[in-house]
Amino acid sequence: MSFPLRAFWLLFWLLALPARAAEISLALDSIRHEAFDAEGVTLSFDTDRRGEADIRLGRLRVGSLEYRELRLHCSGFYFDGRRLDCPTGTLRRDDARGRDRPLLPFSFAWRADDGFVEFILKDADVVVLSPLVKRLRGWAPEGRVDFRLAMRGDQAELRLALRDLGFANKAGDVKGKGIAMTLDARAERRGAAWRWQARLDWPQGELAFAPWRRAAALRAEAEGELTEATLQVDLARLELEGTGALAASLRWDRERGEATDWGFVTEHLDLGTAMGEWGQPWLAAQGLPVWRSSGKAMFAADWRAGRLRRFFAGLDGATLADATGHVELRGVHAHIPWEADGDTEAEFGIGAGRLGDLPLGDFSFPLRIAGGKASVRNLVAPMLDGRFEVEALTVARKDGHWEADFAGGIEDVSMPKLSRALALPVMDGKLTARIPRISLSDEGLALDGALSIEVFGGGILVHRLRVKNPFSADRHFLADVTARNLELGMLTRTFSWGSIEGRFDADLQDLEMAGWKPLRFDARIASSPGEYPKTLSLGALKDITSLGEEGAIAGIAERAIGGFGYARIGIGCRLRNGVCQLEGVGREGDGIVLMEGRGIPAVSIIGYNRRIDWEALVARIREVIAGKPGVLFE
After folding, report:
1. Domain match, 441 and 482 both
2. Taking the model in full, what pTM does it have?
3. Inside any domain, residue 614
4. 312 and 334 in contact (C-beta within 8 Å)?
């Protein structure tokens, strides 16, 4: 303490004067202590009001914080040069801002012989701290606080208790509500540093730090070192109720106000809770889809010199499923290391799963990780009696966005088994689908080249496939589809439809779908060119005509000995605004020829209603397939 000795004797002499009304002021140059540094100190008291004193501080420094023009009033004041007591005091900023705020109640004690200093706030409104603690400004704080800081020589103790604490920053991305929390800490000075231990208990309230939100039930213990330049957390253990525990370390640069190094290692965490509270908000912030999960997980990370150096994720007996229902993986085991300055190889195994409604069998594969890119090559997974193949899959982080490329397909999957798996009518044949390359970016999914599908004895090609918002309910499909030489017999035997023998081609241009509902397209289905058997049964004839004018078939039904022959079949639909504009293979008067008959009897199908409501047409087709003829539409 910098304080002239003669000033003490002057003070004692003044206190010994006969009791009479007199106001005495004592100006001190400065007071310095390990915990604080004060300048421009003025002590004023009235001899007629013993134990009452006013103290003004021109400047006060506590650690890295500085305050100016503070005014303190003490009741029960005692000061003899080696001891100062202020058991009941109030504090405020002596400026316009401070005078508009409630007084801050406190108590203070100091001893010169052992260096004891104690400062206490009891049941204070946090609002009264905002003129003093600059960082509270703009946070709209509310709640109550108890605070005690005591120092004796090289020992220090701190206790902080918060009740019903609430706050929010101006941006609204950091806020707290109803928080109850206690912090107890002890420290011992060793040379120029303080070694400390602390315990935090947070039993109540909610804290949001976008994109994360956490309810209470957190306990933490930590130890480390504090110097003028850094705060070092050597070891911290955090227990999150319902999730698990982790060990962490941290190095904080006090001058720069940022973490330069940190790291953590978790124990086995509950994956569902951890994913919901920590992983999914981060994925959503990156524009990635929602995932549901269960099982156990382990994570670790190491941040050094301003960037992430290492990361590890492990899964044990996990289940992962995206919220859209397209992907579900069960019995997942994973060991995924990542290093910023080197390549790593991860292991990933799946007990069972599905893609959409397609089941997947047990398989495992290596995952190559290099920097911000992960890749899989030559993966073969069983799918029914065939296989699902990944020739190449790459997922990368580029310019703040996620991108992905995929090439592969499905080989030799039994259509009967696939039909049953998808809860569809049983179809004949085998399915083979090959994807040359499909990419994922901010603009959605895009197919480069053509998706090739071999089914119903022919081939289907999907061109210009684009999917906007692929992982949301409002996804949009855009594509062109071409089918050639598909066997009508295999197709019609699949459904409750009369038999048609022959082959057909199909073209579907400018297809746009919202979800699974068509918005627009130009479609045409027609018999393939060439010579091959072209017949249809009476049942098929009835089914086709029931889509239009059912009564026309009655006149020839009795003359049908077997099937009917046809020269060609062709139906086109141009869908716009929910209405289908029909076309056929030709025109006859005011009608369109949908089927041109051949043989005896030669039966042709002619339609006269060219504009048909799409939803009504789909409903009628469903009725025909289900064997339930309904009301004729005009």
Report:
1. no
2. 0.61
3. yes
4. no
